[in-house]
Amino acid sequence: MRKFVIAFFALALTLGGVSATAYATNCYQDNSINKTGDWFATLGKKGLEKKRVLIERKHDRIAACIQKKQATNL
């Protein structure tokens, strides 16, 4: 039980740190979290449908990042 609790806290600290660094980067660069999400979103899709999904997701991420930066700069 003790090993499980230690592993849980180590995982929580690791994942908590990833989210802070993921959003501190440039809005136009993809990180590993975004790439993993894109992979799941395009799983089973081919051709134009896959490209459309990737473009929409990237557009949404950029828009959200810019909006978040504008809100914090006010």
Give the helix/strand layout.
Blueprint: H1 2-22, H2 32-41, H3 47-73
Structural class: mainly alpha
N-to-C terminal Cα separation, in Å?
Answer: 47 Å
Number of helices: 3
By DSSP, the count of extended strands is 0
* Radius of gyration over C-alpha positions, nearest whole angstrom: 16 Å
Strand content: under 5%
| Quaternary assembly | single chain
**Mean pLDDT value:** 84
Helix content: over 70%
- Poorly predicted ranges: none
Order of helix and strand elements from N to C terminus: HHH
Indicate the overall shape. Answer: flat
Which sheet architecture does the biggest sheet show? none
Descriptive report:
The protein has 74 residues and is an all-alpha fold. It has a domain at 25-74. It is 78% helix and 0% strand. It contains 3 helices and no strands. It has helices at residues 2-22, 32-41, 47-73. It is flat and about 50 Å long. The model has no long low-confidence stretch (mean pLDDT 84).
Protein traits:
single chain; mainly alpha; 78% helix; 74 residues
Brief overview:
With 74 residues, the protein is mainly alpha-helical. It has helices spanning 2-22, 32-41, 47-73. The protein has a domain at 25-74.
